[in-house]
């Protein structure tokens, strides 16, 4: 985690690029049951640009960061989303928190992914390559992409 | 003033797992009753693993600590009683909010943490599944392995059981 010194002023000139062709933030289901929700109109998720930007500027302020968000309803009908952070190689569960660091599940693609289901051995958090591939494909196809340019710092 | 049990006790271990893994008050669809069910089922999963073939779940010892520190089983708990700075910070933040009456979230967090402590200190519930409840995953991911059957969802987690004869 990057530490920002007290004498460094992070000037947040953010020009968010939403690369999805339609601003309406409806995504295909990350879970695969077809149920989706609309980020842009949901009170808990509509500030996604701000949440993502603050996270990016905290963890990787001196470089560009790219995210893809894919929302879904859980089996018990609750709203969640996977935030795929390309440069950080992480998949972060977002349940509407104002701070992504409060997530209860962040998957590190370098260490938390196993080849097959048989390699899970009952793991409560590891995922298979096939699952990552599927969620990533869904997000690339119909998720919301957020590009956060590098922050500008000055002494 | 809320203080969670010492980390080197089973109650302390479980309290931290429940707080880390169940959907907490920061989530938009948080519900205390649902969180309590999640915690009770997690308690059952942990002790079922202790009492039924712990090696199957990569545990070296048939103890709660052995199950909890089994490689690749519980995120950020593999080296318990040492665990990640991120998780330490997140759990401490919950406790701080609960203990700050000026924070409007205080009562929600206090209830959540007290629920975790209560479940950790209570006897394990009767297994509601048709088999042995031995797994959970974050809702929206995948099964914990080939021999697991989905039981139900609570607190943002899908719970799975294995056949008793497995």
Task: Summarize the entry for a quick read.
The complex is a heterodimer of chains A (155) and B (166). By secondary structure, chain A is an alpha+beta fold.
Task: Please tell me about this protein's structure.
The complex is a heterodimer of chains A (155) and B (166). Chain A is α+β, with helices and mostly antiparallel strands and 155 residues long. Chain A has a domain at 22-46 and 67-146. Chain A is built from two helices and ten strands. Chain A has helices at residues 48-59, 129-142; strands at residues 9-11, 17-18, 65-73, 79-85, 90-94, 106-108, 113-114, 127-128, 144-148, 152-154. A six-stranded antiparallel beta sheet of chain A has the order 2-9-3-4-5-6. In chain A, strands 1-10 form a two-stranded antiparallel ribbon. In chain A, a hairpin with a 4-residue loop joins β4 (79-85) and β5 (90-94). The relative contact order of chain A is 0.26. Chain B has a domain at 10-123. The radius of gyration of chain B is 15 Å and the shape is globular. Chain B has a three-stranded antiparallel beta sheet with strand order 1-3-2, with helices on one face. In chain B, α1 crosses α5 (106-121) and α2 (32-51) runs parallel beside α5 (106-121). Helix content of chain B is 40%, strand content 11%. In chain B, β2 (149-154) and β3 (157-162) form a beta hairpin. Chain B contains five helices and three strands. The mean pLDDT of chain B is 96. Classes of the chains: A alpha+beta (155), B alpha+beta (166). The interface between A and B is large, with 38 and 39 residues.
C-alpha Rg of chain A, in Å?
16 Å
Structural class of chain A: alpha+beta
Query: Strand order, biggest sheet of chain A?
Result: 2-9-3-4-5-6
Strand tally of chain B: 3
Helical fraction of chain B: 40-55%
Number of strands of chain A: 10
List keywords for this structure.
heterodimer, A: 155 residues, alpha+beta, six-stranded antiparallel beta sheet, two-stranded antiparallel sheet, 17% helix, globular, disordered N terminus, B: 166 residues, three-stranded antiparallel beta sheet, 5 helices
């Amino acid at each position: 985690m990057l530490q920002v010194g007290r004498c460094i002023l992070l000037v947040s000139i953010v020009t968010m690029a939403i690369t999805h062709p339609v601003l309406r933030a409806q995504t295909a289901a990350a879970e695969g049951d077809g149920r989706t929700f609309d980020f842009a109109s949901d009170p808990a998720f509509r500030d996604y640009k701000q949440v993502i930007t603050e996270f990016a500027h905290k963890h990787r302020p001196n470089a560009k960061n790219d995210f893809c968000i894919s929302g879904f309803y859980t089996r018990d009908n609750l709203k969640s989303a996977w935030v795929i952070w390309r440069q950080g190689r992480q998949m972060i569960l977002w349940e509407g928190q104002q701070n992504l660091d409060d997530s209860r599940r962040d998957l590190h693609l370098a260490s938390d992914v196993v080849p097959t289901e048989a390699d899970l051995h009952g793991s409560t958090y590891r995922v298979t390559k096939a699952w990552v591939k599927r969620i990533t494909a869904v997000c690339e196809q119909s998720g919301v992409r957020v590009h956060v340019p590098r922050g500008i710092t000055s002494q | 003033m809320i203080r969670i049990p010492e980390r080197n006790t089973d109650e302390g271990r479980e309290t931290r797992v429940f707080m880390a893994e169940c959907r907490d008050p920061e989530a938009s669809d948080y519900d205390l009753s649902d969180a309590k069910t999640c915690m009770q089922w997690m308690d059952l999963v942990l002790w079922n693993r202790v009492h039924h073939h712990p090696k199957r779940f990569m545990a070296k010892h048939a103890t709660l600590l052995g199950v909890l520190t089994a490689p690749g089983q519980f995120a950020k708990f593999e080296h318990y009683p040492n665990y990640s700075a991120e998780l330490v910070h997140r759990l401490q933040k919950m406790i701080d909010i609960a203990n700050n009456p000026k924070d409007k979230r205080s009562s929600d967090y206090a209830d959540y943490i007290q629920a975790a402590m209560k479940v950790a200190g209570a006897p394990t519930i009767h297994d509601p599944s048709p088999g042995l409840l031995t797994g959970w995953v974050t809702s929206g991911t995948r099964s914990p392995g080939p021999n697991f059957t989905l039981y139900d969802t609570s607190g943002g987690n899908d719970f799975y059981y294995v056949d008793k004869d497995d």
